[in-house]
Inverse folding.
């Protein structure tokens, strides 16, 4: 029992420390995505700037007013959105977190068990406190056609013995990614204690089965 209590205390300390990131950090993490979304709809954000502007020693009054106007537009948009592209902070948090508590070799965290999910199955999320669901830009593309993707990161495969050892080069993320069209279905799973696969908000039965199979293979859901 002492070992478990010590483990739980360590998890609390790590969680609290991660949550102490500043609002400034959060702003830096979300602002680029907010600009990306706004620029798709507002042609003013895509307008070219005078080349001479970058050569001037001081920012002109006109440029300052223009930027101030853009910031007001972003603030208005921010108040009306529920989807922020803030995956970097969430990813950083979860890849440095301890895995769920386990006894033995922790096979249940890396090897899916139980029934294979089917269309008529009822599934539920497991280890929810060790998984983050977020939206980010497609990391495989850097061109103007870059689109939103849904990213899922988890700490199930993190190594206890490497935790807080300072080996940043050995740290890696674990998880999945899906098209943004899967967001509603994933939120259904996240927000439900249990849900039928056939009730997921996806176009085809094949998409529904493929989604839950991917989550089950990653040990993120179980069939009940």
């Amino acid at each position: 029992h002492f070992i478990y209590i010590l483990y739980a205390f360590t998890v609390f300390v790590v969680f609290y420390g991660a949550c102490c990131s500043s609002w400034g950090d959060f702003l830096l993490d979300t602002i680029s995505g907010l600009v990306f979304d706004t620029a798709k709809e507002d042609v003013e954000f895509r307008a070219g700037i005078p080349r001479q502007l970058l050569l001037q020693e001081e920012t002109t009054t006109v440029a300052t007013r223009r930027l101030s106007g853009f910031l007001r537009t972003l603030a208005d948009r921010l108040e009306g959105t529920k989807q922020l592209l803030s995956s970097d902070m969430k990813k950083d948090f979860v890849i440095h977190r301890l895995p769920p508590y386990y006894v033995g070799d922790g096979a249940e965290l890396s090897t899916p068990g139980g029934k294979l999910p089917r269309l008529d199955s009822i599934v539920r999320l497991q280890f929810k406190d060790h998984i983050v669901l977020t939206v980010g830009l497609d990391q495989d593309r850097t061109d103007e056609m870059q689109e939103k993707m849904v990213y899922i990161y988890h700490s199930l495969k993190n190594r206890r013995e490497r935790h807080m050892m300072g080996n940043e080069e050995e740290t890696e993320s674990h998880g999945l990614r899906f098209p943004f069209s899967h967001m509603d279905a994933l939120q259904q799973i996240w927000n439900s204690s249990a849900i039928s696969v056939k009730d997921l908000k996806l176009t085809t039965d094949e998409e529904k089965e493929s989604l839950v199979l991917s989550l089950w293979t990653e040990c993120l859901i179980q069939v009940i």
